[in-house]
Amino acid sequence: MPFKRYVEIGRVALVNYGKEYGRLVVIVDVIDQNRALVDAPDMVRGQMNFKRLSLTDIKIDIPRVPKKKTLISAMEAADVKNKWENSSWGRKLIVQKRRASLNDFDRFKVMLAKIKRGGAIRQELAKLKKEKAA
Amino acid sequence: MAIFRFHQYQVVGRALPTAAEEHPKIYRMKLWATNEVRAKSKFWYFLRKLKKVKKSNGQVLAINEIFERKPTKIKNYGIWLRYQSRTGYHNMYKEYRDTTLNGAVEQMYNEMASRHRVRCHCIQIIKTATIPSKLCKRESTKQFHDSKIKFPLVFKKVRPPTRKLKTTFKASRPNLFK
């Protein structure tokens, strides 16, 4: 089982610890074995330990330490935002965020929707069982 | 920007003017200390060893903290130091890759403490310089001079995103791959 996600210049990673938790950053250069220089369109370029990064499948094409404009245009060209939001990992995070931000009325609506969905499933199941028995 | 334990200061001082010497020579020194008070003390320590002047017959003219010019650029730092081991004094040259000089100096102090058991008060920094990639001597810094550097993260440590969510017991074993 070889490795598929490498630390390389242009790799998109998710920050999984610390102040920048949940942000998508691009690895712009490697400082040494434990740290990388990371950059994102809306943050100052800074160093980050690899322990705080989770690598994703997305990689963009950039030269070694690009200017901010080059980085932003490369991210637009590779369409990182849409690729992330359509990937299963990205979608799960969006759903998690939505669920965490529900208020009580929303949770009530979710409960009603779940009951309705359960009822519909049980109706179909009962129909299938009757056909089987007949 | 991380919190640095060691700050770089520029201290300028001279002997007090006397009747014999109206305009004594002014000396400037760049050194590392945890705060300004310590920086001034270090300045007199070194100046005493070089010139015939002490804090009691001298004055500090200026002390300024020196900040990193380009903290987003990765540089190779070479540090020449003199340290005291259990058996005597030795000189050493070490190389570090970092974005700031203060960060490299902090790496140096930590490495000297771990590798040689030398505490920070037994270390004197002789000289620091940014080294261009061609002139680096140590393999461990030269291996990162690759514009197409690529390596996998072999061991994934699973940890909760905040220390509040830490629990002693977990329901299942963690997945350490990838």
Write the layout of secondary structure elements.
The complex is a heterodimer of chains A (134) and B (178).
Chain A: E1 6-8, E2 11-15, E3 24-30, E4 35-40, E5 43-49, E6 53-59, H1 68-78, H2 80-86, H3 88-100, H4 104-133
Antiparallel strand pairs in A: 2-3, 2-6, 3-4, 4-5
Chain B: E1 7-15, E2 26-33, H1 36-50, E3 58-66, E4 75-84, E5 89-98, H2 101-116, E6 123-131, H3 139-142, E7 150-152
GO molecular function (chain A): mRNA binding; structural constituent of ribosome
InterPro entries (chain A): Rib_uL2_dom2, Ribosomal_eL14, Ribosomal_eL14_dom, Translation_prot_SH3-like_sf
Family (chain A): Belongs to the eukaryotic ribosomal protein eL14 family.
Q: What is the helix/strand order of chain B?
A: EEHEEEHEHE
Element order of chain A: H for helix, E for strand: EEEEEEHHHH
Taking all residues together, what is the mean pLDDT of chain A?
Answer: 91
Q: How many strands appear in the DSSP assignment of chain B?
A: 7
Q: Pairing-aware structural class of the strands and helices of chain A?
A: alpha+beta
> Roughly what fraction of the amino acids of chain B lie in strands?
25-35%
Q: Give the terminus-to-terminus CA distance of chain B.
A: 28 Å
Question: Which shape of chain B, going by the Cα principal axes?
Answer: elongated
Describe the main β-sheet of chain A briefly: 5 strands, antiparallel
Q: What oligomeric arrangement do these chains adopt?
A: heterodimer
Supply the helix-strand structural class of chain B.
alpha+beta
Describe the largest sheet of chain B.
3 strands, antiparallel
